[in-house]
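PROTEIN DESIGN WORKSHEET
SECTION A - STRUCTURE
LENGTH: 929
TOKENS:
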């Protein structure tokens, strides 16, 4: 015969426990040897893997601490203490008391009521021998009594109980544990007397077989009895002292606030409480401190001859899990409701009603009147045919709470919707959300049972139709509201196409945080974006916000815009990023878009009219058309466009090339401190060069400028502003109003202020985010090459020296000297081909800028380029020849000149030999070759 297998010993566990026992004398040398006997039962419920993760000394320390606490305990009392946190942990609670039911549940309830959680619970039940003074003698043996020893390592709570603000602090936790242990002892000690009173109530209701059967069912471990109270009729009613048992032995503890002072209760309410016929179930105001931290249940029974009994307790879990038709008294109540419904039991509606009542919230079945339940069940039946958001409202007879059943669409149901509807209901009834219970079946609706705590006598009248409409609106899903918004904004046909693409594009955090109106705006911003496209943006001031507060929505195709890239752009516009929330939008059939929602703060008040200018400037910065520096701050401070800021930047960059001593930061600061100066410079510029200017009168701007200069107290600011004005006054032409991606202006060098000699007769400065260049001429007819320079900070100095040499070289022929050159800005590509391409692009820009400012001839008449106003005479001659770094660019110059209608021809000097570089000049068609 096969042998019966026996359990394999856990050798590792034995070794771990032995190591802890061996460490015990080192950890607590003053404890008796019996302390080691606590180690195996203390850690019996701890898995071996978890046990192995703890040092032996830590296990020994836990056992020593609990044993030391158990050494002395007064008979009939619980010994409770909190050990302070160590090394960032939470407090540890140690409890030693006589073993009895509900101890662990009650301790956990106390933790929940104070907002604490449990990290670890150790709970051995041991036979303990004590002497008459309560001193521990040993474990087991004759006279030992079972004691419960608990060591609870507390942790953060998983969430507060509905409608409760947890008490904070260790003192509150200690008080809650002490009360829970005391109340548990009181309830357990009183159980025989409570059970006897329940039997008495059953006998008193022999004439009501359903009620009597229900009381017998309660006695069969279906109701945790916690207290009993008897109220006799009479003037104002009175409590019978000898009948106050268990937790209700304290007459100061009211079961219902409404019954705290029966003499002050209105007659109708008193009859509802004292005239029970013959049995009723209600909810108490108090939360139970024994077993579960829920509002306690109260069973009221009528006493023949007058009076009422109150049984305080908690229904066991079986009462909530069993079919209500299997519970005495409740089953007859359900049958009466079905009969009131007037439907055949075998019909569709009959079966549907029965299923609805079988799954009805049990507290409602116990507490609500039959007519109230039927009315709500009819709503549920209709919802099974036409699913939609709906409500059923029941008011407590004492005015303590409002019980509301809410049916909400399951596809949009989540904790946020549950909380949103709960807050709406609490506000409507001027109460607080006391509890909620969620039921999710297989149907399209979720059911939430809300309990709204109210103040008796002060619950407002509520328009329930309006409340239902408000809940229906709150319950509408994001997609449904987006569909309606699209239809209203775009029309049915376009809305259908857009909705198909965007219905599921918005992530859940977006749906929770943003409005549908905002989603519609973001959708329009992101619609059609493809990888490689530039980001799109929308800038506005939030409603009711400070005049410095701005909201920016930025749609970036494919990948997010790194914050490190975005911040310098904001800073250059005098904006500070306070917060960024990114959302990844994934439209169906299209590339994803990362939407950045920024909260910005301007360093000056933002006028509403300047918001479009700021948005345009930021778009230019994102595209690379504008450079991110402090000149852009004038958009905010002076109301300039980003291109007007570019003009001032280009003027400063030219000044730096002629040795202007002030750094860019100083110039930016002077303009920021005097934004009106920047505005006046631009006004004068437009009066002189804007083809669409309504007036050429400069008098008003000149007068304002003179007054501004007279009022300046900062000599550096005065020097900076006057120098910029000097450059502006020396400006003869500009391509600014051609709207190109580079800016060129022509200067009368003699009038442009201090500069290193020799002064050119005229010079052109070309500026873009990717290059800078200049062309210097010693006279009206001059020629010389274009150089690719690598001297970024002083390339004009290099070009000036070359112009001087070229002038000497050309002294014996008609043209005088000219030279041009350019530098690349930003990082130069390391690859040769890429670097050459960048140089060619810069060369093209310089040549185009020179052509933009050169007249052409039409029948012998000099004609300026489109949208270029001249402050000088005719100037139809300019040369674009090759030089160092540009020897192979002649064909490029030819093509550009042809594009502008210029003529390029060979201009080889007589001394030219085969193999030498052929120079070419650009001239009007009528000029001699």
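SECTION B - SEQUENCE
RESIDUE ASSIGNMENT:
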């Amino acid at each position: 015969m096969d042998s019966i297998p026996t359990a394999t010993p856990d050798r590792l566990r034995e070794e771990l426990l032995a190591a802890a026992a061996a460490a015990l004398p080192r950890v607590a040398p003053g404890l008796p040897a019996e302390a080691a006997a606590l180690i195996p039962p203390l850690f019996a419920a701890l898995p071996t893997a978890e046990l192995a993760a703890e040092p032996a000394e830590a296990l020994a320390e836990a056992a020593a601490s609990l044993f030391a606490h158990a050494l002395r305990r007064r008979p009939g009392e619980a010994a409770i203490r909190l050990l302070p946190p160590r090394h960032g942990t939470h407090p540890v609670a140690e409890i030693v008391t006589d073993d009895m039911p509900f101890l662990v549940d009650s301790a956990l309830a106390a933790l929940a009521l104070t907002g604490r959680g449990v990290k670890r619970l150790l709970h051995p039940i041991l036979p303990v021998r004590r002497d008459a003074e309560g001193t521990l003698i040993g474990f087991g043996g004759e006279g030992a009594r079972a004691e419960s020893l608990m060591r609870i390592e507390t942790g953060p709570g998983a969430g507060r109980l509905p409608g409760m603000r947890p008490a904070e602090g260790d003192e509150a936790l200690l008080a809650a544990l002490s009360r829970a242990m005391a109340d548990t002892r009181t309830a357990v000690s009183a159980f025989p007397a409570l059970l006897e009173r329940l039997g008495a109530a059953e006998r008193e209701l022999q004439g009501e077989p359903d009620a009597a059967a229900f009381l017998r069912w309660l006695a069969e471990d279906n109701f945790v009895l916690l207290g009993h109270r008897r109220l006799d009729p009479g003037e104002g009613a009175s409590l019978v002292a000898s009948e106050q048992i268990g937790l209700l032995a304290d007459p100061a503890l009211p079961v219902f606030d409404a019954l705290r002072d029966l003499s002050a209760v209105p007659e109708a309410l008193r009859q509802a409480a004292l005239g029970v016929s013959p049995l009723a179930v209600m909810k108490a105001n108090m939360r139970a401190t024994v077993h579960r931290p829920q509002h306690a249940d109260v069973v009221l029974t009528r006493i023949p001859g007058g009076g009422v009994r109150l049984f305080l307790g908690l229904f066991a879990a079986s009462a909530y899990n069993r079919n209500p038709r299997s519970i005495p008294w409740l089953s007859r109540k359900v049958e009466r409701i079905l009969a009131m419904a007037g439907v055949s039991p075998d019909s569709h509606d009959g079966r549907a009603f029965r299923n609805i009542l079988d799954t009805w919230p049990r507290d409602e079945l116990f507490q609500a009147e039959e007519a109230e339940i039927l009315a709500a069940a009819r709503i549920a039946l209709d919802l099974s045919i036409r699913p939609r958001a709906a409500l059923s409202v029941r008011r407590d007879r004492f005015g303590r709470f409002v019980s509301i059943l809410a049916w909400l669409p399951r596809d949009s149901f989540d904790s946020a919707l549950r909380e949103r509807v709960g807050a709406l209901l609490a506000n409507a009834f001027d109460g607080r959300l006391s509890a909620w219970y969620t039921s999710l079946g297989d149907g399209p609706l979720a059911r939430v049972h809300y309990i709204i705590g109210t103040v008796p006598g002060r619950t407002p009248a509520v328009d329930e139709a309006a409340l239902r409409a408000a809940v229906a609106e709150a319950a509408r899903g994001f997609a449904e509201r987006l569909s309606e918004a699209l239809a209203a904004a775009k029309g049915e046909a376009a809305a259908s196409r857009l909705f198909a693409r965007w219905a599921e594009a918005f992530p859940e955090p977006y749906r929770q945080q943003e409005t549908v109106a905002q989603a519609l705006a973001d959708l329009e911003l992101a619609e059609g974006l493809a990888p490689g496209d530039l980001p799109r943006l929308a800038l506005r001031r939030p409603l009711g916000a400070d005049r410095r507060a701005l909201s920016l929505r930025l749609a970036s195709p494919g990948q997010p815009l790194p914050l490190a890239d975005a911040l310098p752009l904001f800073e250059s516009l005098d904006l500070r990023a306070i917060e960024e929330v990114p959302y990844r939008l994934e439209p169906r059939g299209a590339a994803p878009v990362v939407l950045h929602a920024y909260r910005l703060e301007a360093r000056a008040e933002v006028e509403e009219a300047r918001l479009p200018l700021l948005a345009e400037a930021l778009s230019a910065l994102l595209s690379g058309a504008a450079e991110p520096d402090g000149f852009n701050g004038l958009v905010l401070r002076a109301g300039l466009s980003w291109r007007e800021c570019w003009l001032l930047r280009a003027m400063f960059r030219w000044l730096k090339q002629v040795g202007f001593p002030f750094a860019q930061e100083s110039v930016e600061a002077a303009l920021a401190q005097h934004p009106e100066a920047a505005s006046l410079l631009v006004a004068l510029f437009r009066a002189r060069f804007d083809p669409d200017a309504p007036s050429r009168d400069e008098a008003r701007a000149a007068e304002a400028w003179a007054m501004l200069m007279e009022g300046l107290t900062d000599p550096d600011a005065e020097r900076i502003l006057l120098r910029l004005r000097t450059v502006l006054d020396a400006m003869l032409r500009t391509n600014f109003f051609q709207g190109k991606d580079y800016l060129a202006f022509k200067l009368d060098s003699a009038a442009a202020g201090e500069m290193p000699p020799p002064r050119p007769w005229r010079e052109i400065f070309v500026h873009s985010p990717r290059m800078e260049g200049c062309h210097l001429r010693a006279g009206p007819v001059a020629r010389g090459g274009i150089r690719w320079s690598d001297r970024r900070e002083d390339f004009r100095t290099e070009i000036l020296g070359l112009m001087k040499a070229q002038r000497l070289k050309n002294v014996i022929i008609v043209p005088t000297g000219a030279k041009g050159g350019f530098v690349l800005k930003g990082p130069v590509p390391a690859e040769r081909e890429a670097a050459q391409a960048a140089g060619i692009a810069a060369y093209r820009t310089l040549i185009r800028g020179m052509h933009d400012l050169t007249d052409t001839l039409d029948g012998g008449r000099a004609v300026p380029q489109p949208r270029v106003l001249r402050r000088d005479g005719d100037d139809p001659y300019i040369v674009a020849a090759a030089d160092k770094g540009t020897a192979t660019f002649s064909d490029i110059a030819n093509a550009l000149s042809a594009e502008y209608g210029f003529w390029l021809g060979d201009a080889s000097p007589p001394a030219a030999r085969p193999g030498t570089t052929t120079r070419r000049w650009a001239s009007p068609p009528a000029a001699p070759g």
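SECTION C - NOTES
Residues 1-7, 258-266, 904-929 have pLDDT under 50 and may be disordered.
The two ends are 123 Å apart (CA to CA).
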